[in-house]
Amino acid sequence: MHPSVVTTSPVSEAVRQALEISLRGAQELLPQDAWIGKLVRSEASGQPLRIKLGLDPTAPDIHIGHTVVLNKLRQLQDLGHQVIFLIGDFTGLIGDPSGRNDTRPPLTPGQIRANAETYYRQASLVLDPARTEIRYNSEWSEPLGAAGMIQLAAKYTVARMMERDDFHKRFASGQSISVHEFLYPLMQGYDSVALKSDLELGGTDQKFNLLMGRHLQQEYGQEPQCVLTMPLLVGTDGVEKMSKSKNNYIGIAEDANTMYAKVLSISDPLMWNWYQLLSFRSLAEIQALQAEVAQGRNPKDAKVLLAKEITTRFHSAAAADAAEQDFMHRSRGGVPEQIPQLSLPGAPLGIGALLKRANLAPSTSEAQRLIDGGGVRIDGSVVSDKGLRLGAGTYVLQVGKRRFARVVLT
Question: What residues bind ATP, as annotated (predicted)?
Fold first, then answer.
């Protein structure tokens, strides 16, 4: 159940709209009354609120599921608040144990530096760089030193730490928990103290760490931050959370044609969830679009708008228009204008070996499986003979709907 707008006292329309934007697609806003109070105070004083998102540079495969929290940050940025994109170059050395059933291997300083270089560029695909405060938590974490770390550790009990779900489960099942893992939520919470954060964002798996920030701010005499958690995006299969290992993801670095086609492949019900979490359209626009579909408009029209919006964000409007034309061309059985081209010696060559050498199948056995499934075409004709051998010539190979190669076989 997503949170809904509830106010306990009269507020201005601007505050009400800000609350609605905050809650859009969110899982939890804790505590909501405190956030309303901060919004009211900000409106009265003209002082923007400080809104924090921290990410450790662990070099994950960045996909659009990772941008859900960044999208929320951008929405709050557009309201005029100060967003802080925090790169956890210090906490990355510890390793976040959230959701883990084992100890995460810490990264080396060299890996941290290399990964951190890419993070701001990735975040800038969603955030406005000119209005974003970029910070690194080594700035205040390293100066703490041993004495400061001990003083920080004294502000939280082992019993409270063991209430954390992943620690509790690991302890109960006899799996090891390293002492340094207890430091992670403490250091993340201390980031909120150092930045005087009014609101911290994170995925639902970060709730314990986010609440630690509230606790430590109170310990250090600060007004505690509010906490906003966002759900994990369901992947293109409509079942599992988006993940490269599940092959249900859309990478933000994928080419425009693939990105556009993958968005169009999702189900109609999932589309509306994606609109809430990924689109920058207003809720009123989305609701109007839903009403039109309910009254008979083709849902594909709405999906095309979403596909073009997402593709434009990570590429350009021109690339999104070209991707739309490419998709329409392919849906009519055509071959895309730009496909990989390569020359291969060895004619005559078996179809399985040819698909493998053209990088359209990982192995000859997988190529044969694809042929059995009717997923392989040569010059538009379905291949059914796994023993087919091709002589010298030029061929357009196709696997599935989206993978092509033009091969000159010699």
Answer: 244
